[in-house]
Amino acid sequence: MPNHEAPRPPELLSPWRTDARVALQGEARAFARDIVMPIADKLDPQKAEMPRALIDAMAAKGWFGITIPAEHGGLGLGVFEYCLVSEELARAWLSVGSILARGQGLGTQTLDDARRADLLRRSARGHWIGGIALSEPTAGSDLAGVQTRAVRDGDTWVLTGTKRWAGFALAADFVEVLARTREPEPGEPRSAGLEPFLVVKEPGTFPSGMTGHVIDKIGYHGFLTWQLELDGVRVPESDRLTGLYGDVGADADSGGFAAVQRGLNIARVHTAARAVGVARAAVEDCQAYLQEREQFGHPIAEFQALRFALADMAAKVAQARAFWQQVAHLLDQGEPAESESAMVKLLATEMAVRVTNQAMQLHGGNGYTTERRVERYWRDARLTTIFEGTSEIQRRIISDRMLPRT
Fold this sequence. Notes:
Blueprint: H1 19-43, H2 52-60, H3 79-92, H4 94-99, H5 113-124, E1 130-133, E2 149-153, E3 156-167, E4 174-180, E5 194-200, E6 210-214, E7 225-236, H6 260-292, E8 294-295, E9 298-299, H7 304-332, H8 338-362, H9 374-384, H10 391-402
Parallel strand pairs: 1-4
Antiparallel strand pairs: 2-3, 3-7, 4-5, 6-7, 8-9
Helix pairs in contact: 1-3, 3-6, 3-7, 6-7, 6-8, 6-9, 7-8, 8-9, 8-10
């Protein structure tokens, strides 16, 4: 009898392999297969949100606190483990691999140390999950072009402007908003005056002064994505933040915008790992499909052209996995790895688009239906080349460090 089961993906490469990481990978893989996949198969076609019970189940495993220090209730692990779990979850549903980023200390970089410690504990338990409102209709890749205003009024700041692509905003416990407190002085970078603010809210509601409408996406279902209108949203001075993306290692003295950079590098490696998860799903589904589908009296797995296509796909996925593991290791060693983070984000996401596209082709007409998961992988992979900085932005980052402008 032919083996119709998908293969086990390659385990961790020896330089970074530990028993603890192998166990964590296996736990996440089983959770993705047994818990996440059935939910995704049911809810993704409906463009529905993931149930709170699924988020709570991830919280119970401590996965919202993977990178939070143990003294604050987290697992005290690194970027490597964070991406390791995310790859496995994204293999089942991209949005579930993404929701982990809304913990990990996001929304905890307050000016008050005691409050920050309390929020870190809540974040680690999955009780402080947020949305991020950085982009605007006219400011996406160019965050220095943000025009949302934050005006000081006594002990509070008043936020006014429009934010776009704020995922999970309504369901969140808070929304981090990047706003401009002043215009840059002559000779300052355009990012001068940009600061992140913490807008605390009740899940399922927007606070006074904030409204929004859902952006109808073609993929990346599991949570809703919003365009937000801010009209006099009041934020206390104590909720002005020192950094974004939950980087508990952010330097509070470096300024709000400058502290974003390390978080962006982590986010890019995280995106690479998620892209690998989606592409791996396409490879594994193709292996099973090629063995079950027959044409001309033979399983199509016997046709050399299709076998070779699958081999190329698997090799590209393995290559991208090895690369994200290397860059995650560099970040955990304290290296800035800015070029490497841009490179792995570029290569892994572009790979995911090509591999899922090829998977659609190998499925033939069946791939162009909603009866197979491959169309979900195809839709979701396409987004990975866009968010956390488009492929063009990654190429600019890489080339600017190779060829500095005079």
